[in-house]
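Quick review question:
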């Protein structure tokens, strides 16, 4: 049991936590959430006794072993494998004692030390360290490389492996999925599900949180508020609390209507049955999620596009790599409504492909044909490092190609929570999360009609990730994205392509199918991915003939589809009108009990009809996709 008793925690003169009390049970798995700068990392440092609390106390059981994920790894000649094993300090102590006992031929000491080694399962230490490195994306050749040879992202992974290697009763992980790809994120999720100690987790990845935690601690107005359940349960509970405030309730209802309208627009454009089904479920779920974020400081939108050609980019026989080909024979047509999620193990070539498409890296072969009015918006982590640190947010936007009045720029930056004095402060003093928001603000301001995004959620807090998800839903252009955030992918893309063993192909299935495939892998590349075989190229006349025949064959199905969509729209309008009536507080008085019962019955019947019509619509999509 860990208890915080009337704790006050400060950073400089800023009060982060005021008079906070809570208890964490042994074995409890808690997600710590709050906006950037709220004090999440400081709370971890206080629990690790790295910084003192101003008032109150933090009580922990005697002898509790804790492990935290270090935020920095200085370069050294230690190999990756040695570095991870070093985290198991008891193993290293016994190892050194054994060497000393052998040197002095002390057989009694040797017998005792071997017994201690067996008690901590020390004989499997090296094997466990290798498993951790493999799960986090390191190949065997990397085990013996010195730490100094690794980039910052790989050093973050080493810190994570070391934290997992250290025997602990309390494990505290601060944004462990930053710099992980989807495959490593899924592996970590499964590892943490098996962890038997008490877990404290800071993360902006809601799907990851949902799978791992059973409690949420939320930073709200300098208080720590506990919510039972996972992150989705927290959103619903918080939405219910906030709905009691009439102004927020009205904003919630407006946001619900916006998402319902988006669901209708998506349904009209959906072309792939499996992805359509997954995306529709995610979007319907967003209607319940949105109210919990209604007081978010982030409200930005991609500008309306005046230049949106039907075809934006055609890729033929593309070869990518660095000197040597990494992936060959990439064929892809990007239309104005294309929304692709790229899947693949770390190092497979996903980021390299985005760089080549963005013109940041030369191709090794093949052709890329771009529309004359193509405007690419490219977001990658290195762009955060390329910000002019001496500039201010206002100057950053003001100096860009698209010009605007000063007040328009200030209003725009306010949507990214840069307000007041912050707009005119130098970027060098900003946190990693604030710099990531600025890099994103630059991309949005450019009015791109093709977005290429490489891990855009790194360093963003949950409210900002939610705002980005909503903005991408409303975005009118094409999107190709690499992300380990499954909730973001599920809500913003319509199809998936994978890069596996140098082969680029469309992935047959949704993210759940991909996770199932990943769970069967002992190591990258053991089993073939379920991908669609490349289609033979046809001449234009044959293409027209086949397209006409397919249209004729599908005509009756299209009529059914249109009728169902009209029925769905009608039901949704009736539900909206009904919910407006149910929002009337007078309806819940005893005298109106029978009217309330009737309205609730009507609501249930309409929801049942809506589910039936949507299921029929999805079945039609499968027939139309054949």
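Suggested answer, residue by residue:
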């Amino acid at each position: 049991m860990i208890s915080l008793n009337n704790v006050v925690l400060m950073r400089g003169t800023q009060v982060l936590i005021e008079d906070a009390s809570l208890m964490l049970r042994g074995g409890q798995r808690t997600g710590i959430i709050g906006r950037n700068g709220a004090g999440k990392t400081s709370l971890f440092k206080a629990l690790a006794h790295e910084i003192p609390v101003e008032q109150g106390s933090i009580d922990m059981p005697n002898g509790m072993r804790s492990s935290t994920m270090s935020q920095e790894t200085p370069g050294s000649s230690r190999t990756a494998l040695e570095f991870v094993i070093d985290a198991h300090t008891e193993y290293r102590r016994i190892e050194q004692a054994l060497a000393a006992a052998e040197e002095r031929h002390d057989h009694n000491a040797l017998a005792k030390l071997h017994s201690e080694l067996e008690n901590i399962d020390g004989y499997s230490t090296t094997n466990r360290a290798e498993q951790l490195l493999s799960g986090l994306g390191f190949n065997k050749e990397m085990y013996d490389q010195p730490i100094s040879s690794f980039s910052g992202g790989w050093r973050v992974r080493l810190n994570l492996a070391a934290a997992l290697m250290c025997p602990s009763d309390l494990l505290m992980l601060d944004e462990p999925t930053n710099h992980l790809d989807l495959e490593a994120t899924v592996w970590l999720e499964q590892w943490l599900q098996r962890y038997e100690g008490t877990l404290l987790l800071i993360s902006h990845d809601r799907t990851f949180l949902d799978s791992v935690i059973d409690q949420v601690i939320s930073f709200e107005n300098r208080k720590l508020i506990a919510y039972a359940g996972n992150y989705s349960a927290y959103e619903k509970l918080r939405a219910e609390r906030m709905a009691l405030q009439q102004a927020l309730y009205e904003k919630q209802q407006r946001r619900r209507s916006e998402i319902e309208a988006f669901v209708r627009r998506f349904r009209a454009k959906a072309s792939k049955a499996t992805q359509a089904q997954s995306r529709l479920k995610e979007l319907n779920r967003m209607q319940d999620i949105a109210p919990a974020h209604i007081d978010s400081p982030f409200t930005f939108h991609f500008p309306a596009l005046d230049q949106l050609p039907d075809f934006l980019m055609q890729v033929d026989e593309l070869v990518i790599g660095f000197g040597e080909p990494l992936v060959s024979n990439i064929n892809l047509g990007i239309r104005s409504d294309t929304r692709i999620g790229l899947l693949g193990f770390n190092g497979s070539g996903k980021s390299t492909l985005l760089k080549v498409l963005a013109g940041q890296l030369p191709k090794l072969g093949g052709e890329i044909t771009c529309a004359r009015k193509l405007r690419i918006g490219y977001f990658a982590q290195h762009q955060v490092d390329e910000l002019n640190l001496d500039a201010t947010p206002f100057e950053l936007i003001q100096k860009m190609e698209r010009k605007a009045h000063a007040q328009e720029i200030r209003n725009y930056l306010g949507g990214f929570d840069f307000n007041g004095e912050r707009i005119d402060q130098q970027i060098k003093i900003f946190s990693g999360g604030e710099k990531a928001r600025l890099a994103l603000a630059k991309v949005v301001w450019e009015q791109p009609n093709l977005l290429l995004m490489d891990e855009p959620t790194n360093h963003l807090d949950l409210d900002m990730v939610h705002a980005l998800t909503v903005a991408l839903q409303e975005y009118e252009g094409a999107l190709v994205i690499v992300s380990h955030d499954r909730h973001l992918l599920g809500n913003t893309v319509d199809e998936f392509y994978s890069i596996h063993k140098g082969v680029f192909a469309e992935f047959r299935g949704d993210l759940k199918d991909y996770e199932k495939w990943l769970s069967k892998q002992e190591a990258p590349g053991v089993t073939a991915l379920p991908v669609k075989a490349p289609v033979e190229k046809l001449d234009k006349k044959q293409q027209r003939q086949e397209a006409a025949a397919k249209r004729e064959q599908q005509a009756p199905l299209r009529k059914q589809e249109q009728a169902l969509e009209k029925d769905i729209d009608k039901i949704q309008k009736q539900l909206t009108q009904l919910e407006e009536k149910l929002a009337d507080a007078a309806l819940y008085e005893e005298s109106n009990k029978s009217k309330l019962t009737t309205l609730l019955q009507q609501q249930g019947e309409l929801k049942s009809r809506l589910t039936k019509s949507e299921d029929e619509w999805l079945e039609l999509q499968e027939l139309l996709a054949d």
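Why it works: Residues 307-375+479-535 form a domain with the Rossmann fold fold (CATH 3.40.50.300). Residues 540-582 form the longest helix (43 residues).
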